[in-house]
């Protein structure tokens, strides 16, 4: 707990920013299914898009790497507490930029990263397809060599921020195996089809990407051919799972805060319902699970900062537990609010819908159970 106390002031600063600049727009984001320009401008002005990237390219990673990862995680917690959709925007930006920072050539890093860290350009990652979800290595989009270029055809779907991103890290099959590319939005042959009506996280600005003869010069190949999933996409997914776990903590905290305020105000049988033991039991369970998950995220981030061999497993476990935790917390919070929580006058119905999405994105709970189990078996066999 000593480290948590050391970062207490930063947590309050980040939360104050989120409550001031993001929370007032949360209902509008959910209703209009888009993140307004003024919110993006506020994020850009606060340096949010630089978080998690190397200082050499305008990022904010510097000094103690563990402290840097903790700051990054606490930022995602604050964003998640204000709007799961906004946290998703920042998360997918980092998911798209992280593979470039990790596997890009010097020229690619110099060309793209300063514009990503400044927020001039927004990034996303394009893996999922209509017939391919969790089995990323089976993507049907196809990249064919044509001299030094690649020509790509195929369709990607459920692409978070596909409506707004300027740059996509895209995985396509090739004769050499799954391969990653940097796909600018203005590439000829790329058309973007918005997806509306999502259950939750409606501000994700989802889209389908239709690629018809998209020609990419050799400088847009990211990493080695055949390493698109095992190395390039993995860098984005590892980052995304870590960020999302922290975002789930923030969303759960918002549910708890709303429940405490409501329970103190709502009276039944001549007493505030906060005095009722069954309500206290739910509050206790919510607070304890949030606290435990925050510590799990902290530990996973520490392993990540230290490049520990267990970091990928720890990140997967944090995302798995956090996404299931926030669903439980949101359910109890809705129960405390009763019928009022189901209507538009309280944020609980939005929190409840947003929470349900968390067990599906960045690896479903069932996929992560298989991933985590393999790591556990490997450790047991040593």
Task: Please write out the topology.
Blueprint: H1 2-6, H2 8-21, H3 26-32, H4 37-45, H5 65-82, H6 84-103, H7 106-117, E1 123-126, E2 142-146, E3 149-159, E4 167-172, E5 179-184, E6 190-194, E7 207-216, E8 221-222, H8 228-265, E9 267-268, E10 271-272, H9 277-305, H10 311-337, H11 348-357, H12 365-380
Parallel strand pairs: 1-4
Antiparallel strand pairs: 2-3, 3-7, 4-5, 5-8, 6-7, 9-10
Helix pairs in contact: 2-5, 5-6, 5-8, 5-9, 6-7, 6-8, 8-9, 8-10, 8-11, 9-10, 10-11, 10-12
Hey, roughly how much beta strand do the residues contain? 5-15%
What is the terminal-to-terminal distance? 32 Å
Mean pLDDT: 94
SS-derived structural category = alpha+beta
Total strand segments:
10
Describe the overall structure.
With 382 residues, the protein is α+β, with helices and mostly antiparallel strands. It has three domains: 2-117, Acyl-CoA dehydrogenase/oxidase, N-terminal domain (Butyryl-Coa Dehydrogenase, subunit A, domain 1, Orthogonal Bundle); 123-224, Beta Barrel (Butyryl-CoA Dehydrogenase, subunit A, domain 2), CATH 2.40.110; 229-380, Butyryl-CoA Dehydrogenase, subunit A, domain 3 (Up-down Bundle), CATH 1.20.140. Helices cover 54% and strands 14% of the residues. The chain contains twelve helices and ten strands. The strands form three sheets. A four-stranded mixed sheet has the order 1-4-5-8, covered by helices on one side. It has a four-stranded antiparallel sheet with strand order 2-3-7-6, with no helix packed on it. A hairpin with a 2-residue loop joins strand 2 (142-146) and strand 3 (149-159). Helix 5 (65-82) crosses helix 8 (228-265), helix 5 (65-82) packs antiparallel against helix 9 (277-305) and helix 10 (311-337) packs antiparallel against helix 11. The longest helix has 38 residues, at 228-265. The radius of gyration is 21 Å and the shape is globular.
């Amino acid at each position: 707990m000593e480290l948590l106390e050391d970062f207490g002031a930063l947590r309050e600063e980040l939360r104050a920013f989120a409550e001031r600049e993001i929370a007032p727009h949360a209902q509008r984001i959910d209703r209009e299914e888009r993140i307004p320009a003024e919110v993006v401008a506020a994020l850009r002005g606060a340096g949010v898009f630089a978080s998690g990237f190397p200082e050499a390219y305008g990022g904010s990673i510097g000094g103690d790497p563990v402290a840097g990862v903790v700051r990054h995680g606490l930022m995602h917690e604050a964003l998640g507490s204000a709007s799961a959709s906004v946290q998703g925007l920042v998360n997918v930006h980092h998911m798209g930029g992280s593979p470039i920072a990790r596997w890009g050539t010097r020229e690619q890093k110099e060309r793209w990263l300063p514009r990503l860290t400044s927020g001039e350009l927004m990034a996303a990652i394009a893996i999922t397809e209509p017939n391919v979800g969790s089995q990323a290595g089976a993507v049907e989009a196809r990249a064919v060599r044509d001299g030094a270029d690649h020509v790509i055809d195929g369709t990607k779907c459920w692409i978070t921020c596909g409506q707004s991103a300027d740059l996509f890290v895209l995985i396509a099959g090739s004769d050499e195996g799954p391969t990653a590319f940097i796909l600018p939005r203005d590439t000829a042959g790329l058309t973007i089809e918005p997806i509306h009506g999502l259950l939750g996280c409606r501000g994700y600005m989802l889209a389908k990407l239709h690629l018809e003869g998209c020609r990419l010069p050799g400088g847009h190949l990211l990493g080695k051919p055949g390493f698109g999933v095992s190395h390039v996409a993995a860098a984005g997914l590892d980052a995304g799972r870590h960020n999302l776990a922290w975002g789930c903590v923030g969303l759960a905290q918002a549910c708890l805060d709303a429940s405490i305020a409501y329970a103190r105000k709502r009276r039944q049988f001549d007493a505030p319902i906060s005095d009722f033991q069954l309500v206290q039991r739910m509050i206790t369970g919510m607070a304890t699970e949030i606290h435990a998950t925050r510590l799990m995220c902290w530990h996973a981030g520490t392993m990540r900062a230290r490049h520990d061999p267990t970091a990928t497993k720890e990140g997967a476990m944090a995302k798995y537990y956090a996404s299931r935790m926030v669903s439980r917390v949101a359910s109890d919070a809705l129960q405390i609010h009763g019928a009022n929580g189901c209507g538009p006058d309280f944020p609980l119905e939005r929190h409840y819908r947003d929470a349900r999405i968390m067990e599906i994105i960045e690896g479903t709970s069932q996929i992560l159970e298989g991933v985590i189990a393999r790591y556990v078996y490997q450790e047991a066999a040593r």
